[in-house]
Amino acid sequence: MPPAAAAASPQPAPRRMRYAPLEGLLRSLEIHERSAEMKEIIRLSGGTDYVPSEIAVERFAEVLLFLARTRFASLSPSEGLFRVGACLFEGYRKTLLGQIQLAALHLLGPDRLMRKIPEFVGRSSNFGTRAVEQLGPNTYRVDFRGVPLPGDYYNGILHAALRATGVSSPQSSWEQTGPEDMTFEVRW
C-alpha cells in the first residue's frame, strides 16, 4: 500500500468507557476521594490527580478486577465481579445521570427492561454490540460481541437491574463464546 493510502486509512477509535459507570461504583462502595484506594483507582484508570472523563476499556477492566479483589476478597473472583456489577448499577442510580436515565425503571417492568438492555448497557461505551432476543415468557438471551469486560460483571448489572423492576429472584447463566463475546440467558 502506498504511504499516502496508508495515511488516509482511518484508525479505529480507542475503545473507552465514560466516567459515569465508575462514578456509580465510587458512590455505591463509598470510596473516599483522598483514600489510598481512590489513589489506586486513579492510577489504574490512567489518571494522575483525578479519574479521566473517559477510561480506556483495558484500564476500566483493571479497576473492576481491583475492586472485586479488594472489596470482595472473601468471595471467588467471579462472585466478586458479579458484586462489583451489582454495586455499579445501584451506585449509578444515585448519580445525576443515572437518576435521569433510570427514573422510571420500576415502571418499565422486566420485559421492557430486557428489550432495552442493549441500549442501557451500551450508553457508557464506544465499543461492541449488544442484542437481545426473547426466548419465551420471562426468558431472554442477550448477546455481547466485541465487549472485552468480564461477563460476571455484566451478570451482576443484569441481576441488579431486574431487581429494580421488581423481580425478586432473577436467574441467569452466561457463556464466553469468543475472546470478547458472551451470551447470557436471563429468566425470572
Automatic annotation (TrEMBL):
InterPro entries: Mxa_paralog_2265. This is DUF2378 family protein. Pfam families: DUF2378. It comes from the Bacteria. Residues 169-188 are annotated as: Disordered. It comes from Archangium lansingense.
